[in-house]
Amino acid sequence: MTSPQTNLQNINVCIIARKRLKNNTRVIRQAGALAKVGANVTVISLENPITEYLQNYSSVRFIEVKIKPWPTMILQTFNKIVRLFKSAWIYLLVYTGVEDKSRLEMKKRKGSINRTNSILSTFMRKHLAPYSNLALTIQFSRNVEKTLGKEQFDYCQAHDSYALSATWRLANKTGGKIIYDAVEAPDERSGNALSSTPAWLRNIESVRDEKIIQKASRVFSIGESLADWTANRYKIEKPIVIRNCSLYSETEAKDSVKKFLGLNDEDKLGIVVGSIYEGQGLEQLLKSLEYLNKNYHVAVIGPVSKTRYESHIMNIVKNRKFQNRFHVIPPRKQTEIIDFISDADLGLILLQPDKLNHRLALPNKLFEYIMARLPIVSGNIKDVKTIIDKYKNGLCCDERNPEDIAKAMKNLCNDAAYKSRVNKTAKILCWEEEVIKYLQVLDAHSKKREKLSI
C-alpha cells in the first residue's frame, strides 16, 4: 500500500485499550497505519501484542499496564495472613510438645486453610465479582493517567467502551481530543462478571459512557449496523465505518488444515474460526451434517474452555456419532491463521440472531475467510449479507435451519464460480484499502483543528 498524503506527521496519538492485545489486529493496524504516515503513536493496554506484531510495528510505542484483579489481591493477602498465623501456631505447639511437627505439617496442607479459602472464594464470587469490572476500569484509568499524564497528545482514541473512562481522564490531563472506536454495543455484554453486575451500576456506567461518547471529536465503527445503532443510541452523528479487514496476502497453504486433520482432496471441510461458545450456531451446524455425505467435515479453530456449553456440544457429537466429522483444533497464531485455513472449502458464520451484538456484527472471521479465498456460508446477519450479495462470494441461509445450512454448503462446494470470485474480493476488502478512509478522516480533522488555532 502506498500511504495517502496526509497532514498527520508528528501529531501525537494515544490508543487506549482496556483489553489484552495479544491478537487484537484492529488496534495494531490502526497504530501501524498512523505511524507509517509520520504520527507519533502510543498504544497502552492490559497486555502487549505478540512478539511478531511488536517486531513488525517497531515504530509504535506499546505500553503494558499490569493490574492484578482485586479479588485475587484480597485472597492472596488473606492467604499470607493465614500462613503466618499457622506457622506461629505450629511453632507454639511443637515448642510445647503438644504434637510432633510432621503431623502438624500434614494438617497444614489438608486442614482448615483450604476450607477457609473455599468459603472466601465463594463469598467473593457471589458478592464482589459483580463489581470487578468497575474495579478494573478504575485501576486501569488511574494507571493510564499515572503513566502518560505528563505527556501531550493531540488525539486519545478509546478502543471499545471499556476504555472510555481512561481515555476521558487522559484527554483531560493532556489536552487531547477524544476519538471513540465502537466495536460492539455496550448495552449487551457477555461474561460472568458483566452479566451479574447490578442494574443500577450498569445504568450509572451507561450514563457515564454516553456523556463521553457525545463529547468525542470523531466516532468510528466496525460496520454499518453498529454505526446506525450507535448514532441512535447516543444521539450523535452516524459514526464513520472502518471495517476490520485483514491485511492483503497471497495465501500459501504450507501447514494446511486438511493436512493437519488427515483429510484428502475428496473431503469437504467447513471452517469456524473462534472458540466454542453459545449462540455461534454449532448445534444447527452439527445437525446439518445429517443432510450431507460422510465426506463433509466441520472444524472449529480456537481456544477450548471446559464449560457446560462445550460439554453439551461434545455430547451432541458423541450421540450423533460425528466424532470423525467434527474437529476441534487448538488456537493458531493470528499471523498464521489465514494460510492455515486456505485449503478448506468453506468459511462458516452462523451467529444466532437472538443477541443484539450478533445482529449488529461484522465479524473478523468474515475478512479472514475472504483473505484465505474461502467461499462463505452465512446466516442473515445484515452487514455480512450485504457483502455476500455485493461480491457474490458466498451464500446466505437460515442460520436456525440445519437443512438449509446443508443445502448452502453443498451448493458452494459444487460451484467453482464462487471460488474464482473470492480472489477478486480479497483485493478489494483488505486493510490496505480500508485504512485510507481512517487516515483521511483524521487528516481532515487535524487540518480543521489547525485552522481553528490560527
What gross morphology would you assign? Answer: globular
By DSSP, the count of extended strands is 13
How many individual domains? 3
Q: Indicate the proportion of strand residues.
A: 5-15%
* CATH architecture descriptor text of the largest domain: 3-Layer(aba) Sandwich
What share of residues is helical? 40-55%
| Spatial strand sequence of the major β-sheet | 3-2-1-4-5-6-7
Q: What does the radius of gyration come to?
A: 26 Å
Number of helices: 20
- Runs with pLDDT <50, length 5+? 450-454
CATH class bucket of the largest domain: Alpha Beta
Give the CATH superfamily of the largest domain: Glycogen Phosphorylase B
By helix and strand content, what is the structural category? alpha/beta
CATH fold name of the largest domain: Rossmann fold
